[in-house]
Amino acid sequence: MPTHADRKEPEAALRVRALESLLAEKGLIDPKAMDAMVDLYENRIGPRNGARVVAKAWVDPAYRQRLLDDATAAIRELGFSGLQGEDMVVVENTDSVHNMIVCTLCSCYPWPTLGLPPVWYKSAPYRARVVADPRGVLHEFGVDVPDDKEVRVWDTTAELRYLVLPQRPAGTEHMDEAQLAALVTRDSMIGTGVVRTNGAPA
Amino acid sequence: MLLTAEIVPGLVAQGASARAHVDVPPKFKVGDKVRARNLNPTSHTRLPGYVRGREGVIEFDYGVFEFPDTHARVFEGVPEKPQHCYRVRFTAREVWGPTAHPVDTLRVDLFDDYLDPA
After folding, report:
1. Assembly ipTM
2. Is the dihedral of CA B74, B78, B79, B81 positive or negative?
């Protein structure tokens, strides 16, 4: 028997199709433009971009400083810019502060560096709970923050978009920029994760 | 204007910043104590409910942006009202009370029209 959840997806798909055909009939979009947009965000723009930013900041102290001073310009140096990344801020995790990002009002997210947000990021439970109980949410993501370390939650409801610069894990001194980038996860740049070396216990 | 596939890559790479390049004086400066107003409009706002009435500190002035509350209503004839947007620091205890973790904090980006001096 179909449940409510089963019906949800086809309804959403139907609504998207109706919107797309209306926009096309009214002469506002060429359907090929929709295909181009979907291709960009499915295949070209995603968290690997952000991982490159993080890895470069780890190996290049001057770049790290530019990133913290003017994130939009520093990220553009690597070729990442545009929609939902027009005005960027990078916040750095340290031994005393763990940052995490949410948009409690909707789903604001830095598209050029992280792509489109994961479903849980847009869910009401994440948005409501991360501001009120960030340590509880972090625990569910497998991250436990010591009591003397500040958890700093950034609610990105205005026009700035945020990216977390995670801490470089110990034991990675021998790695080059590309190897480091491969370690960087999407969640570590939202702040719901930390970067670990391969094989390290979770 | 028809959006075509050729326009898409440039449009995506360019984006559309909400920064307003107009000279509007700020109402607050870094270090000022502020209290978020208790506003509950039925129209669009970016003032999260949980900070209404709570006291925080201006930590950074991001400059002048279009004000979302009026920007969302330009089609109704509501005039734009560009203004400063600040990063405001709140302690978790100020927002959530004594059961909140003592060292945890929040940063919320708030516009001039959401704030009173505290």
Report:
1. 0.96
2. negative
